[in-house]
């Protein structure tokens, strides 16, 4: 395949995360509004250009009070920092359709270099003849690296919200015309 533009299909894609709560359980959530600019040869991502944008106001943890707190100045401060962005800078083939995708991640006005493991899941044509590709991506970041430090001490020791955030993406994209 040649290097081509791909459009993310939000109906068949997801941006999910999980974080420790009270140091004993993981709370999961999603961002329901996102888009990407992908120019790639899916068979060789090393030359790809990937830009991802996530609307932070679309956070969904299945708890309205918690979601509103995450949107507030204590966390994302969506009024002043409405988006999380990622722009790839280096992509390394690890073999077996797996890549380390490194780039600049910006959250809450802070930018850091992060690496995600991306797997090319395959390609095919849908029943209408549209060419589709699938990818998964996984990684983890420290929220404190982005100035997201709100917390509450627990009387039994520890804190209410963990620092490590696990990120999981499931992406299906269609060849753009």
Structure in words:
This protein is mainly beta and about 180 residues long. It contains one helix and eleven strands; from the N terminus they run ββββββαβββββ. It has one helix spanning about 65-70, and strands spanning about 5-10, 15-20, 25-30, 35-40, 45-55, 60, 85-95, 100-105, 110-125, 130-140, 160-175. An eight-stranded antiparallel barrel has the order 1-4-5-7-8-9-10-11. The longest helix is centred in the middle third of the chain and has 8 residues, at about 65-70.
**Rg, alpha carbons:** 17 Å
How many beta-strand segments? 11
Envelope shape: elongated
Low-confidence stretches: none
Average pLDDT score: 92
Distance between the termini: 15 Å
SS summary, helix count: 1
Strand content: over 45%
Helix content: under 10%
Strand order of the largest sheet: 1-4-5-7-8-9-10-11
Note the main sheet: 8 strands, antiparallel, barrel
Structural class: mainly beta
Please render the helix and strand layout as text.
Elements: E1 4-8, E2 14-21, E3 25-31, E4 34-41, E5 44-55, E6 59-60, H1 64-71, E7 83-95, E8 98-107, E9 110-125, E10 131-142, E11 161-175
Antiparallel strand pairs: 1-4, 1-11, 2-3, 2-11, 3-6, 4-5, 5-7, 7-8, 8-9, 9-10, 10-11
Descriptive labels:
mainly beta; single chain; 177 residues; 11 strands; eight-stranded antiparallel β-barrel; 61% strand
């Amino acid at each position: 395949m040649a290097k081509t533009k791909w459009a993310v299909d939000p109906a068949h894609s997801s941006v999910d995360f999980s974080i420790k709560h009270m140091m004993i359980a993981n709370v999961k959530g999603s961002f329901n509004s996102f888009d990407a600019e992908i120019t790639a040869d899916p068979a060789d991502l090393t030359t790809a250009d990937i830009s991802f944008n996530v609307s932070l106001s679309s956070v969904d943890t299945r708890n309205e009070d918690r979601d509103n707190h995450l949107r507030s100045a204590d966390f994302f401060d969506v009024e002043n920092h409405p988006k999380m962005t990622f722009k790839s800078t280096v992509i390394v083939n690890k073999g077996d359709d797996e890549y380390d995708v490194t780039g600049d991640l910006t959250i809450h006005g802070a930018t850091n270099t992060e690496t995600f493991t991306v797997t090319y899941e395959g390609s095919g044509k849908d029943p209408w003849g549209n060419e589709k590709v699938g990818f998964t991506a996984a990684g983890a970041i420290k929220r404190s690296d982005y100035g997201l430090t709100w917390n509450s001490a627990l009387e039994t020791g520890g804190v209410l919200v963990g620092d490590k955030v696990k990120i999981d993406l499931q992406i299906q994209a269609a060849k753009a015309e």
